[in-house]
Amino acid sequence: MTAALAPRARRAARRRLLAAALAPLLIGALGACGYGSDKEDDGKKPAAKAKGAKLDGLDSVRVGYFANVTHATALVGVQEGLIQKELGGTQIKPFTFNAGPSEIEALNAGSIDIGWIGPSPAINGYTKSGGQNLRIISGAASGGVSLVVNPDKIKTPDDLKGKRIATPQKGNTQDVALLNYLAGKGYDIDAQTGKGDVSVLRQDNKEIPTTFKQGGIDGAWVPEPTASKLVAEGGKILLDERDLWKDGKFVITNVIVSQKFLKEHPKVVEAVLRGAVNTNDWIKAHPDAAKKQVNAALKNLTGSQLDEKVLSPAFKNVDVTNDPLAETLRDQAQHAVDAGLVKEPKLDGIYDLTLLNKVLKAQGKPKVKDAGLGVS
């Protein structure tokens, strides 16, 4: 191998290693995803199987999402078999992720086709690819994010100075929101290091409750169910992020798709969106049953379920929605710029709501808008 070819070979090797590393994330050929139960806490039914004709001649579609209450549409849609029902003979294969950047890497590597994800990773991924890797094709959830603090140390926003506040990851949706909020309060923080008048510590969602309990942090800006876990550990909600947005609505989860997959398999994408819309209807019509299904899905994915004192407020704080709330995504992108995390976000063409609006029209529902950021 020549020296000139070595960098190219190394990049190819890294792509192969990434694909190999992502493969174990596949949830045991769906065996780990039980589909509900007639028994109270069983949560064990055979996985929904593909039946009928394959859409676009495709054997399977690989779908990514998080084990978070803010991804309730995906959790319930898979758990209840509502998405699989629309896919017919094309089998859904779920992958789970802990953070948006790793899901974007999987999409870029061709390891997943469709994903539920927060707005900031979607914006970052789209920008870094020059608008070539993904499209946002639907909304999924609004709300479900809070700043929870130790009430003995922090009683008002003025008490945040000198304190340690956690977010799930540098540059993720909650990190951007916290930095924007702190800047609005006059606090000076270096967005890259998290150092400043307030120390912003980036830590995995699943680790934050333990760190909070041990006194390693004084609070956290986090999504559900982490926020409710902190409250259960004695924390107090200093701010519900819904209070910062018009009508209390802001996008916390979108549905994205690989542009290549969207072009080659539109019937599959439409079926997943139909399943998502039907799932949101089911969640709204059966909130108690949906809450149990979310918990059953979390148990199957993580090995443990949420206590009722955590589950109920977490579920109540999240609103499932088909609307991508595109205006709020534009605002969140600007917040990332203001914080110094992104220089020039690319937003033009990030949305393609064609198939979603087709599904909504067929069901007699109003169309949703892309705030002028759709494909031309």
TrEMBL record:
NCBIfam families with a match to the protein in the record: SsuA_fam
Record's keyword annotation contains Membrane: yes
Localization (cell): Cell inner membrane; Periplasm
Gene Ontology MF: a single term: ATPase-coupled transmembrane transporter activity
Span of the signal peptide: 1-32
Name used for this protein in its record: NitT/TauT family transport system substrate-binding protein
Sequence similarity: Belongs to the bacterial solute-binding protein SsuA/TauA family.
Keywords, in A-Z order: Cell inner membrane, Cell membrane, Membrane, Signal, Transport
GO CC annotations, alphabetized: periplasmic space; plasma membrane
Main location: membrane
Signal found in the keyword field: yes
Organism: Streptomyces zagrosensis
Short name of any one Pfam family annotated for the protein: NMT1_2
InterPro entries: ABC_SsuA_sub-bd, NrtA/CpmA_ABC-bd_dom
Xref: SUPFAM superfamilies: Periplasmic binding protein-like II
